[in-house]
Amino acid sequence: MADTGMLLNFDIGDVPLKRPVKFTGGRWRDRVSAQRNAKRNQDGPAQGSNSTPLTNDRRDRIPAGDERPTKRQRTQDGYGPRPDLPAKSISYMTGKLPPGSISTGARQQTTKPGGVTSRLFTSNPTPKTIFEEAPEETEPAKPSNAPLSDEAANFHALGLSRRIAQHLSSKLEMKAPTSIQKNTIPQLVKEDSDAFLQAETGSGKTLAYLLPIVQRIMALSQNEDGTSTGTQIHRDSGLFAIILAPTRELCKQIAAVLEKVLRCAPWIVSTSVIGGESKKSEKARLRKGVNILIATPGRLADHLDNTKVLDVGTVRWLVLDEGDRLMEMGFEEELRSIVGKVRKEELKGSNKEGVKFVTLPQRRVTVLCSATMKMNVQKLGEISLQDAIHVTATKSETDSDLAVETNDAVFAAPSQLKQSYLIVPAKLRLVTLMALLKSSFARKGSVMKAIVFISCADSVDFHFDLLRSTPLASLPSDTSPTSNTVAEAAYITSPANPTITLLKLYGSLQQPVRTSTLASFHKANNPCVLITTDIASRGLDVPAVDLVIEYDPAFSVDDHVHRIGRTARAGRPGKAALFIQPGCEEGYIDLLKSSVPAAPQSYDTILQKGFISPITLPKASENSEATTLVSDRQSPNSRAEALQLHFEQRLLAPGKDGSSSKLLDSARQAFRSHIRAYATHVREERGFFDITQLHLGHTAKSFALREAPGGIGGGPSRRTFKPGQNKASNGGHKQGAARGENSDDETGAIRAKGHENNGVDDDAARRMRMKMKQAMDLAGEFNIG
Q: What is the predicted pLDDT for the residue at 722?
C-alpha cells in the first residue's frame, strides 16, 4: 500500500451487525414503542438499569450471579405479564384468536392497533362501600300497593253502579279496589272539584280516574237498577273527557284499559290521537264522534288548531296523567294552550239533540296525576287546577294551595320490592351484566320478564345487537315491524331456559315498530328481556315483570323511582338492581329515598353465580349451531375474561368487504352517546356523576372496545373526518341525529386521567367545555333516546 494511504481498523465486537428496522402503519404511539423495543433488543439494557432483555440469546450472555429480577412491561391498564410466570397465568394477553377460545401460550404480536387486550381484574378502583354478609331471609313484606283485603271495600260501595262492579269482578277479575282507588273514586263520583292524585307507581291511578268518568257518563243512559233513563247516549252525543299522557305507549295503554272497562257500556266510544300515525284517519274518527279522547299534548294541540269538527264545548273532564313527565318533555306551552282553549269555550248544558247533561259535572274538572311533587308539577297545578283536593293512598284533604300540603311529600317504592345496588368497576360492567342476566334466568320460572334501562338509543342498539343469537351479517330479509327489534338471545340462556326473547325499544323508532315491539313484550310466554331507554319508565303496566336492571343510573332520582316501579305492581313481588361505579357514584345511594333500603352487592358475587355454568355463544350463521365458550380454567373469573375477549374479537372481525364490522361502528357510536348522556344528569346530582372522574379507557372496555374512540364532543376528529369533509356527511353524525339525540357537541366536554389523546384537537376541546356549560340542563334529551 502507498505511504500516503491510511488504514482504519475498527473493533466491532462479536455481535453480528443488524440493519435498522423501520416500522410503518398503525398509531404513532405503537410505532414509537416498537422502535424502542427493537433498539433495546440491539443495544441491550442501559448501564445501571434493571430492564429485562427481551430475547433469550441476550439473557444467556449475562454473567452468572448478575441476574436481576424481571421487570414487568407497562401496558395501558397497569403492568403486563411476567415472563417468569407460567404460561397459563397470562392467557388473557392474546392477539386475534378463533372465536370462543382463549390462548394458553405466550402473548401474540399483532400489527393491528389495539391488538393486545388489557386484563379485567387489574387497575380497578377500590369501592368505598363495605360489603357485609347477606342478612338472613325474613318474611316477605306486606305489599303496599295491593288491592284491599277488607270485605267492606268493594267497587259498588264506592259509588259505582252494580253493572260496572260486576263487570270488574267477573270479566277483569278485580275483586277489591286499591287504597288510591278507594280514596279517589267517591270524590270524583260525587264532587265536581279538581283533584291532584299522588300515589306510588303500580297502585292503580289509571282506573282511579277512569271509573268515575265512565260511571257518570253511563248514568245519562241507565239508572242504578239498570233500567233505561230514556236518554240515548252514542258516539255523536259529544266529547265528555280528554286524557293527556306524555308518551304514545302510555296513551295506548290507557286506551287499552279503557276499552276493557267500556265493554260493559258499548255505546260509549273512546279513541286516541297520538303522534306517528295518520292525521287523516284520526280526523275521520273524530268526525264520526267520540266520547272520551286520549291524546299526546302535541297532537291534541294540532287538532284543536286545525280540526274544526273537534268541539270541546261539552268537555267536562281534563286529565293530565304523569304531570311531571309532561313538563319535563317540554309540553308546557302546549298544555297552556290546551287548558286555555278548553276553558275559553262556553260550557254547554246539552247537546244538539237536546240531551241534558244532568249527571255530569256542572263545571270543568281537572285531574292531575303524578307520583312525585316537583316544582314543575306545582307549576302545572297552577296552570290547570282551581280549588283542588289532594288525594293520596292514605288520605284525602282539601286545600287550594297544593304546594303547602305536598312540599314534604316523599314518594316511596312498594314495600315488597327488593332493591340492591352493584358496585361495578367500568371495565367489568359488560360481563357483570351478562352474569346477572344469566343467573336470573338460571332457574325456570324464577324470572319471566326483565327490563334493562340504558341511557341512550345508540347504546340500546349496540347491546341488542351484541346479545342477539343471530349476527347482523346473516340476518334474513324480513319485512315485519319487529324484524329488527325482537330476536332470540345468546350468552344468557341456560338449560332451564334455552330460549329467551330479546327486545329493544326507544323513542326514535317508528310508531308501528314501537307498538308491535311493546305488544310482543306484553304477550310473550317465553322469558324475555327488554332493553330500553326511559321511554318505558313511565306508567307502562306490563304483566309479570320480575326484574328491573338500571344498567345506567337514571338522570334524576325521580326517574329512578319510576323505573323500578315497572315491577312489584299491584301487590306482586319484584326485584330491582342498580349499577354504579366505585368512587363518587357511591354517594348517589344516599339520595335514593325508599321505604325499603337498597342492599349493596359486590360484582364478584354476581360473576360467581352467573358464570358457574358454561356460556352459550351465538350462531355464526342462520344454519349453524350454537357453541360453548371455552376458557383455560373453566372458573367464573376465567369465563368472564374469555367472554370479554370474545366480545372484543367479534368487534374486530372485518366485514365481507374488508371494512370494519357494523358491530364495531355501533359500539363506537354507543360509547360516544353514552359519554354525552353521562354529562346530562340534573344539576343537584351532577356531583355524583362527575364527567371528569370517568375513565374513558375503562368505559370503552364496557363497550368491548380496546381503546376509547375520538369524536366524543362532535368536534373534528383526525381519525373520523377527512380533509374537505364536513360533519353533516359523517354517517355517525347522521345516525345520532336520526335518533332524535343531541348529535352536536353541546354536551361533549369530556376529560379523563391518562387519556389526553382522544383524537380531538385543543380548539375543539375548548369549544366542547364551553358548550357543556350551556347544555347542563338538557337532562331530558337522552331520556327518550
A: 39
Q: Tell me if 533 sits within 8 A of 453, measured CB to CB.
A: yes
Q: What is the pLDDT of residue 278?
A: 87
Segment 25-50, tens digit of pLDDT:
677 778 888 888 877 776 655 444 44
Counting other chains too, the contacts that 607-610 makes at CB distance below 8 Å and 24 or more residues apart are 607/428, 607/431, 607/432, 607/435, 607/636, 607/637, 607/640, 608/636, 609/435, 609/439, 609/442, 610/434, 610/435, 610/436, 610/437, 610/438, 610/439, 610/636
Task: For the domain covering 417-644, report its CATH number.
Answer: 3.40.50.300
Matching residue, cell 303547602: 404
CATH for 179-406, options being 3.10.490.10, 3.40.50.2000, 3.90.1150.10, 3.40.50.300 = 3.40.50.300
Residues 125-176: tens digit of each pLDDT: 888 877 665 544 445 566 665 666 565 568 888 999 999 999 998 988 888 8
CA geometry: angle 601, 605, 607, nearest 5 deg: 125
Query: pTM here?
Result: 0.67
Secondary structure of the chain: what % helix, strand, coil (to 5)? 35, 10, 55
Q: How far apart are CA 277 and CA 274, in angstroms?
A: 7
Examine the pLDDT at 99 and tell me if it is beyond 60: no
Find out whether 367 and 188 touch, Cβ atoms under 8 Å.
yes
Average pLDDT value for the chain: 76
In the chain, where the domains are located: 179-406, 417-644, 662-782
H or E element, residue 530 = strand 528-532
Closest CA to 569 of 451, 463, 715, 452: 451
**Beta carbons within 8 Å of 212's beta carbon, 6+ residues apart:** 159, 184, 185, 188, 189
Q: Is 417-644 in the same CATH topology as 179-406?
A: yes
Give the pLDDT confidence of 260-292 residue by residue, as tens digits. Answer: 999 999 999 999 999 888 899 999 999 999 999
